[in-house]
Every structure is written in structure tokens, then in C-alpha cells.
Here is the input.
Amino acid sequence: MPPGDFSSRIPLAIRRVGLVAALVLSGLAVSCRPAESDGRIQLSYWEKWTGAEAAAMQATVDAFNASQDRIRVNLVTTSQVDRKLLVATAGGDPPDVAGLWLASVASFADRGALLPLDDFMRADGVEPYVWLERYTPVYATMGQHGGRTFGLPTTGTAVALHWNKALFREVGLDPERPPRTLAELEEFSRRLTKRDPATGAITQMGFLPQEPPWFLWAQPLWFGGHYFDESGEIAIASDPQSVAGYEWLREQSREYGLADVQRFMSGFGPFASSQSPFFSGKVAMVFQGVWLNNFARQYAPALEYGVAPWPTVTGDPFALTEADMVVIPRGTKHPEASWEFVQYLASNNPLARTRAELQGIEIVCYLQEKTSPLRDWSPFFTEHHPHPLIAFFRELESSPGAVHAPASGVWQEYSRELATASERIRLLEATPERALGQVQARMTTAWSLHRTSLERQRRAADAENSSNEPTIQP
Here is the structure.
């Protein structure tokens, strides 16, 4: 089927809420259809970024617009892009291109809100698995769900251990030697933790797993666990490694004293400030992404830090990866033009030796100071990247232990349940067995309902397609 043919086949589940969605859309502060001008096809591109990150994508859009004279992409920054995109698609007036978080892609695909990209690739004469070989392996699979490709990565990162070298020196630790195993992480954390001699109050901590809390959902992966079993069923409470990961989380609260830790954390400032616990020297080691360097330069320019892989139980490599994703919503009026822009975001100038020669994905990744998900980087991007440790992150993303969140239509709900369970476990309100057992029970029901809904949609689509087939006259 040619790429343009399936854009009009909006699933019944979406069309049934079209009227309500259209009413809601009338109150949105975004415009899906920019006015036609200068004879070009006008594409609307919704993104979630603001500030410097939005400016970086605007520079990329400007470069695409200047590279040809047939298409003009109009970048629109909007909050709650995931919610607005779903409503806009249901109303039949989506943007032509959108930026989503990785966790949203599979659920949007299951709702029929995204165009699969595989037919576009085949229309270009390339099988999808070959087309995706341009990416580092962990990024190549991120946008795939149910055997099809629904999104492509734009900016990526691996999450790494960051440590404060000055604080290491103060307690006699080698500032160039980070912990390599979980046991060493625990040992280093104890040495780096300080208390007020008079009151016993914590004044500095070596490591807090909940600082920041963004990656607590990855406890099972960190400990070698799984969210689903081999048959695809929810398995968080029945997987020993997953339970062990959350048991370790609970033990941290017990070892340092929950009340003491809570009082200590009450003095933390926000991440994007000089009062952030890592920038202010209150916490010596954190898990953070490649973006930390940009914020450190702004809020803690004197900070001397190092980066290393996550210490693990066995010492085997582990690297948690994330990415922002670009998608083509179902219902776009210009699918081929949208694909042309998406292709630009999936390319670079491999020979670029100056900033002006950067193209495609390397513009936004360079300006946002993140890694490019492409396998091959240009000489300028490699040698002049503003992050001084970018080569480490590139190596980490290419390591055999690189993983990402599962591609599941219920993952957003699943990760929210895990976040709630993590807090209950950390606050000693429930044992890991009880908290994870409740997650498994709720998610087993949700997973069953989700699959039933998908099967109902499939049957409805099959019936509609069958009714639209021409009758063969004898």
C-alpha cells in the first residue's frame, strides 16, 4: 500500500469521539493548519520543548526549510503535547509531525493515532530493518511496536553515574575511580555520608536512589529483572530480580533512617538551580543524563565531576537509555511531505567539519548538547561537541548492556504504578512483595482489558474494510 493511502483510514475508536474532540480543540492554544504562503506545502510540527531546547529545534527546522523550496515546516511549541495530539487526531485535525516522549509512542500506536513509517521506508526502496541500521542499535528499536515502526529518535542519552570529585577527595577516595559494583556503591556512599556531631542530622549523603526520582521505574532492569515474562504477561511481582531491586531500595531507607533522610531532603532545591543537591554538594553521586553538563555550566560552573556506568550487582554492563521521538500523526493531509521532513531529522552531513556544515539531527543534538542516535557522527560533531565527555556517553549507548523502556501500550500506566509503588516501598509503607503484588494485580487486569480493546478494534477495522470492498458481479 503506498504511504499516502492509509492516512485516511482513521480507526473507528478515534472517529467516534471526533465531535467531542473538535469542541475541545477549539479551546487549544495551538494552530494545526498554518496559512498557505509562498506556494510551499505548509507542515505544522508540534514539539514539547521550550527555551534553549526549542531554539535548537527551530534552528534545525530553519535548516530544513532553507534546504529546499517545496515544503515549509512551522514549529509550534505546546505544553502537554501528548494529550493535545491525541485529541487533535481524534478530531481529524492533527499536526503533520509531532515530538513525543518514548513512553508515549506504543500507547499512541495502539490507539491508532500514528502512521506506521515502514511503508514510507519501503516506498523509498529500503526494507525497514535496513533503513534503521543508520541508528545505534539501542535507538533503532525504540520506535518499534507490534512489528512496525511508529517513531524515530531525535535526541538521545544514556543515563550515567555522575560523581563529585572534590567530595571524593575529602574522604580519601580516589577522585578518578568511581564505584563499579553495587557493593562499592554502598561502601562509597557510607564514606561520603556525613552527620552533624551534635544532632546526628544528615548534612551530606553519598548516594540517594530517589535523587532524582525519575529512574526508579528502572530498578528491575538495573537488577536484571523483567516487567513481562516470556509469554508476555505482567511479571513484576513474580520476578526475583525485580523484587530484589525494590528490596534494595527499601534497605537504603532503613540504613540511613527514613526520618533523617526525609529531613535532609527537605532542604533540596530544584534540579535547575544552584540549590540542586548535586550542584550544592549535598549528594555526592547521582544518576543523570547527558543534559546535566549544560545545567552544571549554568548553576555550578566550578563543579568537578566524572561520569561512569551504573554500578551493578554482577559487574555486567548496564546502560539505561532515553530518547525524544518524532512521529507522523494519522490524519495528516501531507504524509509524504511529513516523511520528507522526518527523513531530514534522521540524517546528518557525515562530512561536516564546521558548525555551518551540520545538517539534520546533528544540529538539534549539538545545540541541545546531547548525543546523536545515529551510528556515524560527522567530524565536527565528534571533535567539537560542547559536552566534554560526550565520547563516554556514545560508548555507553553502544555497549551490550544498553536498554530502554519496553514498547507496550500499557507502559505509561505501568510506569505510573511502579512510581507509586517505589514511593510506598521507600517510605516503608509497604514491603516490596506487597506493593509489587498490588501493581501486578492491577496491571494484569489493565493488560487484559487493553488486549481485549485492541482485538475489538481489529475486528471493527476488518469488518469496515470488508464492507468497503467492491462487489464482484457474476
About this structure: Confidence is low (pLDDT under 50) at residues 1-35, 469-474. The longest helix spans residues 432-468. The chain is about 40% helix and 15% strand. Residues 353 and 383 are 9 Å apart (CA to CA).
